[in-house]
Amino acid sequence: MKSSRTMIAIAIAALIPMGAAVAGDKDKAGYGASFDTLDTNRDGRISQGEASVDSTIVFSTVDANGDGYLDKTEWKNRTKGSSNPMPQSSPDTETPRQ
Questions:
Q1: Long-range contacts (CB closer than 8 Å, 24 or more residues apart) made by 34-38
Q2: 58 near 48, Cβ under 8 Å?
């Protein structure tokens, strides 16, 4: 029993550095990858295909001008309002039927 616990602890310890590597290059705001990391073809804008690497990006919301690309201004503005999350809807309270 003791050796299986040791093996589990070793396996977990071995996986911790992998988690940091998978996390990738975070931008300064702490949201997903940086602009330069996502702009793989170095054209100064992020296409929807390039953005798909980062699952935290809601492309249609961030692409403010609707041109199909994210420029640096749109990229910087993507986190505005994130400190004030949208209110969650709550289920209607029904009165029990009698």
A1: 35/72, 35/75
A2: no
At residue 37, what is the residue type?
A: T
Rounded to two decimals, the pTM is: 0.54
Do the domain assignments include residue 85? no
Predicted confidence (pLDDT) per residue in 30-58, tens digit: 567 899 999 999 999 999 999 998 888 89
38 vs 77: CA distance, rounded Å: 16
Instruction: Report yes or no on 66 lying in a domain.
Output: yes
On the 0-12 / 13-18 / 19+ scale of CB atoms within 10 A, 33 is buried
Single out the residue of 54, 75, 53, 55 nearest to residue 63, CA to CA.
75
Query: Domain range spanning residue 54?
Result: 25-79
pLDDT above 50 (res 9):
yes
Beta strands in the chain (DSSP E): 46-47, 69-70
